[in-house]
Amino acid sequence: MRRRLESYAAGRAAKPASPEQIAELQTLAERMLAYTPSKSPDDYRIISVANEAFHRTIYEAVCSPRLMTVISVAVDIGVVARTYYLTGK
How far apart are CA 21 and CA 16, in angstroms? Predict the structure, then answer.
């Protein structure tokens, strides 16, 4: 469900995204790439923070509070259920 919602949001954000949002997405993608694969807990933290900001920037570009709420619930449930793990652990 999360994957479908995020793909839908990315498609909807493509046209209305501002030049600033596009630049921010590029910066965040480069930051994640620079620390992938993660070699330490600090690397993982940097990737996680950048990933969260990346997705939030996409959601904001969509300008749909309803979609942001639905995606937020889908992501928060995974975090609470601890379904996200470090690679190799």
Answer: 10
